[in-house]
């Protein structure tokens, strides 16, 4: 029996990547990195924007490799992803100063998917190891970088201004943190391709169950033990619903709004090991407090318990 020493073809690597083999996708990206960078340079010129566009395209490929219909032509597909990222970056720069056109990564986020049913390849990719690979790389980031990346690419709080409001930092700081996060993500993905990864879907589902149980418990006025443990006495409400210089526990704040007629309905969950984002639709028929139609809870956790909760009110869409 003889073993071929020839490197695997693009077609072979693509089919292996579509079957969930993360290392195969890493080889594909490494093989085509030069041509992907050439496309970015031709459209954006030399500078950090071109490198960012290539990194964006690599992250998009992680999510959308199942969409490739002709595995032998994956190189052309990758270059098209880069081209689209560059064009959206240029258009966003013209339309909104400071935005970097990262909507090419919309498939990673919920906002761009919530109005359309996911295709079968997308559902299959969700079940494969790539999702876990991405999330393990996200978890490698420092908390500040991890938060802006999670908001930008996985939640509906995705404009630069919304993220700046949520993090209470200038828009320029958001841009800087996202740039650092993307660069670190690329390195983390490359260094962890061959490792075993945590089940990201299980983390998200666990957080979703906690959200449902929390809302149900707060509406009924009683917190079962497991939910009480999630919101210990040390939990603190910060941001708009907190009080500067005074520690405020989230439970009485939320109960006050509930008693005033405001109801929250879970729409989407983004969860890592120590940051969770619960996006809510809000109804307030006959309520004393009139709230925006949606909001998001951003929770910072320690040892599984919520240490800080910040409630974010996204700006209305134009």
Describe the structure.
With 318 residues, the protein is an alpha+beta fold. The protein folds into two domains: 10-196, no CATH class; 201-312, Nuclear Transport Factor 2, Chain: A. It contains twelve helices and five strands. A five-stranded mixed beta sheet has the order 1-5-4-3-2, sandwiched between helices. Strand 2 and strand 3 form a beta hairpin. Helix 2 (22-44) runs antiparallel to helix 3 (48-64) and helix 3 (48-64) packs across helix 4. The longest helix is centred in the first third of the chain and has 23 residues, at 22-44. The radius of gyration is 21 Å and the shape is elongated. The relative contact order is 0.10. Mean pLDDT is 76; it is low at 94-129.
List the SSEs and their pairings.
Elements: H1 10-18, H2 22-44, H3 48-64, H4 74-95, H5 120-127, H6 129-139, H7 143-154, H8 160-167, H9 171-192, H10 200-220, H11 225-230, E1 236-238, H12 250-259, E2 263-271, E3 275-283, E4 294-302, E5 305-312
Rounded to the nearest angstrom, the radius of gyration is: 21 Å
Largest sheet: 5 strands, mixed
Shape: elongated
- H/E series, N to C? HHHHHHHHHHHEHEEEE
Distance between the termini: 65 Å
Question: Kindly state the mean pLDDT as a whole number?
Answer: 76
Q: Total domains, how many?
A: 2
Helix proportion: 40-55%
Strand content: 5-15%
- Would you tell me the structural class of the helices and strands? alpha+beta
Strand order, sheet with most strands: 1-5-4-3-2
Q: Number of helix segments? A: 12
Give unreliable regions as ranges.
Answer: 94-129
| Strand element count | 5
């Amino acid at each position: 029996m003889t073993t071929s020493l020839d490197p695997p073809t693009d077609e072979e690597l693509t089919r292996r990547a579509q079957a969930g083999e993360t290392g195969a996708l890493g080889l594909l990206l490494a093989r085509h990195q030069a041509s992907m960078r050439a496309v970015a340079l031709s459209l954006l010129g030399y500078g950090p924007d071109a490198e960012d566009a290539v990194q964006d395209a690599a992250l998009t490929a992680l999510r959308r490799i199942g969409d490739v219909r002709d595995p032998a032509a994956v190189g052309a597909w990758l270059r098209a992803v880069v081209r689209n990222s560059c064009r959206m970056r240029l258009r966003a720069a013209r339309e909104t100063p400071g935005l970097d056109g990262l909507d090419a990564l919309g498939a990673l986020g919920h906002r761009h998917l919530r109005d359309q049913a996911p295709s079968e390849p997308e559902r299959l990719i969700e079940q494969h190891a790539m999702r876990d690979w991405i999330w393990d790389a996200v978890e490698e980031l420092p908390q500040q970088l991890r938060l802006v990346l999670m908001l930008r690419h996985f939640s509906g709080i995705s404009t630069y201004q919304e993220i700046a409001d949520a993090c209470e930092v200038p828009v320029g700081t958001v841009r800087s943190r996202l740039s650092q996060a993307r660069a670190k993500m690329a390195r983390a993905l490359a260094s962890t391709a061959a490792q075993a990864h945590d089940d990201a879907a299980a983390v998200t589902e666990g957080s979703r169950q906690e959200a449902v149980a929390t809302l149900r418990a707060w509406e009924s006025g009683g917190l079962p033990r497991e939910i009480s443990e999630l919101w210990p006495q040390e939990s603190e409400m910060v941001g708009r619903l907190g009080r500067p210089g005074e520690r405020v526990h989230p439970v009485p704040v939320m109960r006050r709004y509930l008693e005033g007629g405001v109801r929250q309905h879970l729409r989407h969950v983004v969860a890592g090991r120590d940051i969770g984002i619960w996006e809510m639709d809000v109804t307030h028929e006959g309520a004393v407090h009139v709230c925006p139609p949606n909001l998001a809870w951003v929770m910072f956790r320690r040892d599984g318990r919520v240490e800080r909760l910040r409630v974010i009110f996204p700006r209305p869409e134009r």
